[in-house]
Design brief:
7-stranded antiparallel sheet, elongated
Length: 202
């Protein structure tokens, strides 16, 4: 009886031993437990989500601030350039240098001023002006055209045509009037060129 009991005990022991975990299974279980512990030690997922959105909002805000700053800087540069051009227009106007070419034709004047690096254009005026002639001048350290005009009221005026910097072409005003040293300066763009008309009376 005892022998039968021993044999049964050994059989049961052998059965449960055969069902024990292999070293590979134990290693996998250990890794799973460690990963579980690591996950449980991380911050709450809600906190992570809030942090993510806060960072996104901060990034968008930073980009917005940069764009606004860039726009304001461009506006400042553009306005300064308009003022500088106006002062140069007035400076040339007050010099009252003699015309190099006398003509009443814009086509003839464009042909005579062949050193210009742009095509001289007949401008659109608000009023009647008679073309008297023109000469070379300088605007923003670039070659430009100074065109002498006379209004229907007998007022002597000078018109300036010049190339616009690429970065300011879109920001140059369609029409803008300034007063500089008692001279009225009207700025506008036409045919891709900058135009400046100076008037100071008869």
């Amino acid at each position: 009886m005892t022998d039968k009991f021993d044999r049964l005990n050994k059989s049961v022991d052998k059965f449960y031993r055969s069902k024990s975990m292999s070293p590979e299974m134990l290693a996998h279980l250990k890794e799973s437990i460690e990963n579980k512990d690591l996950q449980s030690s991380e911050p709450d997922s809600g906190v992570d989500e809030r942090t993510y959105y806060v960072r996104q909002y901060m990034a968008v805000a930073a980009i917005f601030i940069l764009l606004v700053g860039f726009y304001l800087l461009q506006s400042f540069v553009s306005n300064r350039w308009h003022e500088d051009v106006s002062r140069q227009v007035v400076k040339n106007h007050l010099k009252a240098l003699a015309m190099e070419h006398r003509t009443s034709s814009y086509i003839e004047l464009a042909s005579a001023l062949d050193k210009l690096d742009f095509a001289l254009a007949e401008p659109t005026f608000e009023g009647d002006y008679e073309l008297l002639g023109g000469r070379y001048c300088s605007i923003d350290q670039q070659i430009a055209a100074q065109i002498n005009l006379e209004s229907s009221e007998g007022e002597h005026c000078t018109l300036y045509q010049f190339k616009l910097p690429v970065n300011l072409l879109a920001r140059f005003p369609d029409r803008k009037t300034l007063q500089v040293d008692g001279v009225t300066v009207e700025l506008w763009k036409e045919n891709g060129l900058g135009m400046g008309l100076a008037r100071s009376g008869k």
